[in-house]
Amino acid sequence: MATHNPAPKRHDEAVERLTNLSFALQGAANSGGSPDRTASWIRRHVAGYGDKSDEAFAKSLARDIATLQRAGVPIVHSGSEDGARYRLDSSSYQLPPVEFSPEEAMVLGIAGGVGTTGGLSDFSLSGWTKIAASGASRNLAGAPVYTAVNDITRLAPEIITAVLAAVRNQLRITFSYRANPATEPVRRVMDPWGVVNRDSRIYLVGFDVDRNEPRVFRALRVSDIKRSHDPAEHPNPTEDLQVLVERALQRGKKIDARLVIPEGQARELLDAGEQQPDGTVLLHKVDKDWLVRTAAGYAPEVQVLEPAGIRQEVISLLRKASQSQEEG
After folding, report:
1. Is 2 domain-assigned?
2. CA nearest to 198, candidates 236, 245, 166
């Protein structure tokens, strides 16, 4: 006949008793009164000690205090006329308070609230929630309003997770890349170095094995990432990845465009252009992708008059966004 092993139960009781003791001392430290608690008080008020004999209680309490101290809980032990006293040194137990200037809190607030429709917005929103819980607040009064149509709200978290896992494990990856919506996806092979956020667009950076050179890919156009069993052969460069991305984007397509921007709206676009006598705004040598994305974010108030191709791309982007919302 099998015998019952009581060890797991004793282990659970010990863990519960340690937890109760830790919370009791922490509560005393935060009560605003005396942080000290006598051994007799612990015996009467902390579950797990009251049913023990005097000798068993003394041994159990001493053992539990030592266990918590080894685990990093700063419990201070002192003697007094009415017996031993214990208290939690809260100054050594808590992290320093998180403090942000109004400007920093505003930036974090915008980052957390920039997208509430999916994609990476869940990550940023949860981060702001934790920071706000520490006492930070955001003051958006007087802040310019910028578009929330960006990669953060549209990019699937699985893309970033797959890339970062490959970077961490130094593995080669393959993926499908679509240069623009009108082209067919092409498989690429890369030794990934990381992901970079620039102007609310996420870029995959690494060494393109087929091209035999460092390359930058818009993560939103990447899909079907597969991690290879082959190790990455090209280590991360000493150059900052942000600098590498910015240099690559400088070689991107720049265009001129003419827009209609209602008064008091789309400051982001207005600041990038020049007001014309006829009321339109002329933009010189701006990034094509940025213009399409930003103009779509301010539609229908903002209208792209020319070039006609950019106007059509804005319409296509809006249609895709509408379809995604309907499917969701």
Report:
1. no
2. 245
